[in-house]
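Ligand: adenosine monophosphate. Inputs:
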Amino acid sequence: MDCLFCKILNQEIPAQIVYEDDKVIAFNDINPEAPTHVLIIPRKHIATINDIEAQDCELVGHMVATAAKIAKQAGFADDGYRTVFNCNEDGGQTVYHIHLHLLGGKPMGWPPYQEKLKTA
Ligand code: AMP
Ligand code: ZN
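Predicted complex:
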């Protein structure tokens, strides 16, 4: 399968891994948008969050809990941080193996989009 993150899982492409267990790995984003920008991915290939099935829900919960664990270890859990799943084109997804972005170490802006929605 031609999947960038499966290649990282199979060690065909290097990554700076910050956490791993039997279900997930976490590594530094190659193009960080915050002082800490980590991607948490499941070892199981799931293309988008639309493809999450009932039996995957515990795994996805584990991804979220892993983000919180890394935030605590990094020291910004109490200050706060951002977690994001992008989905498909409008969501800005570029790698089709689900990944939870963990961004921390600075205050985050909100909302994340540039243009205000026009209301009728
Ligand atoms: P998304 O746009 O939500 O699909 O996020 C994909 C993320 O993967 C982006 O933030 C990229 O910077 C990141 N990325 C792409 N290639 C690599 C790589 N080889 N190692 C680490 N992160 C990567
Ligand atoms: Zn994959």
